[in-house]
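Collaborator request log, item 7. Partner lab (contact: R.S.) asked for a structural prediction of Response regulatory domain-containing protein to inform their binding assays.
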Amino acid sequence: MPTKLLVVDDENGILEEVKTFFEEEGFRVFVAESGEEGIEILKREKPEVMLLDMKLPDMSGLLVLKICKESSPLTKVIVNTGYVDQLLIDQAEELGRDIFLQKPFDLQVLKGEVDRLLGI
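Returned to partner:
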């Protein structure tokens, strides 16, 4: 069974690029353009890894992270944002984020981080 990856981001270009790349790597990829949609998919699919943008149109990425860790504690979370805000990074770490990546990120770097989280 392929590894499930959930990408929660409001930028269509990122959703498409990450989805295409990881599907070619053999992953089953789910995408969500909002926090609410991401939470629905998370609860239904229980992905092994979630790539989570901190700036979403409907809610804070921190709230999505908190809900993720409560409803799917085994899901590894890679937090990403285009804005380096140390307080935000620290808050995400306190809530259980596994890795922080700054946008823009290289897909090979992202793949390396996903593999590391999965112990591959």
